[in-house]
Amino acid sequence: MTDRIKPIRSESTFFRLDGSRTGKGVVLLYPDRLVSVKIYVEYVCWFVTVLILDVVAYHVFHVIASWLVPFFGILLGGVIGRAVDRWLAPGMVAPGAGNTTIIPLDTISSLRTDRSGGLAGLFPTETVVVTTADGTEYGFFGRTGSLQAGIASALAERGREVRATPLGLAVTPRAVDSGA
Amino acid sequence: MEMAESAALIRSESARRYVDGRMGRWGVVLLYPDRLASVNVRAELWGCFFGPVAMVAAGWPVTADAGAFHAIIGVLLGSTIGRFIDRRRAARKMAAGGAGATIIPLDAIGSLRTDRTTRWSGQFAVETLVVTTADGTEYGFRGRIGSLQTEIAGTLAGLGREVRATPLGLAVTPQPVSSGA
What we know:
The structure holds two protein chains of two kinds.
Chain A: E1 9-17, E2 20-29, E3 33-38, H1 41-61, H2 68-88, E4 100-104, E5 108-116, E6 125-132, E7 137-142, H3 147-157, E8 162-165, E9 168-171
Antiparallel strand pairs in A: 1-2, 1-7, 2-3, 3-4, 5-6, 5-9, 6-7, 8-9
Chain B: H1 2-8, E1 11-19, E2 22-31, E3 35-39, H2 43-59, H3 67-95, E4 102-105, E5 109-119, E6 124-133, E7 138-142, H4 148-158, E8 163-166, E9 169-172
Antiparallel strand pairs in B: 1-2, 1-7, 2-3, 3-4, 5-6, 5-9, 6-7, 8-9
């Protein structure tokens, strides 16, 4: 069973669960849920582009271009691999399967972005941390861009109240019908 | 004075600045506890030009055939160093009074949103943070701005302003105006 609905947005990230690294793949934002899918095509692309560049370097420059080939292979393979990952991910969403984690947007209680400086601010890294009502923290580490704001807008679209706090964005819990 | 200004800087990002969608200028956007500042600096552009020249010149005697590879590495390295220099220069310019800088007081901000333009069926995205002030002026910051939008929102919340998410971005509730009564 796959999910072929087009997501609002998708980002290639590493996953963390309560601070522990759990894998790599793509996070997909749908109007009602956030889905993380583990997928590793990027690594295959690294290997393939390094191999292709090695062959090209040997035939064009008549040298195995030492450190340049792995450098460009990983750079180019990363760009291609991330795009392929994001293209394949929506088709790999399988509820209940080990590679898929589904976070219904209604269970989200807060959002924040943890930022590390990385070499005097030259290479900053960001982790979007999504906390659910049961206290579980799902981390998305990588080039997430404005994912946090995107999730907040999707929540607002669903009628949820999301307010900024100095520590991030807080989602007001949905009023529970008492049934009276 | 310089020390105090540097300590107050919350975050800086290299970005191209637009005012009402026009006048794109390279520079750095700096977030302070009470204002957002945009300073025009161009070391990153110079780095993109001189980086490849330096790399090709350095590698020429050894690996003349791989000049194209060296040029690309030069662009990456030159722009990275340039970005670092830009941020330091921008912070120093602000510390020296911020002459020529565009200052947006945080109290004047009415809304924040991120415009996303995508290429190749959404595989590559360019983000522009749009800050709209109370008088309707739209300041756009295009580049790797990451979570700058929510960081500005957090800073506004720290100032006691109410910031709520809407389907179109983040809306800042206007500051109540004292009637003077």
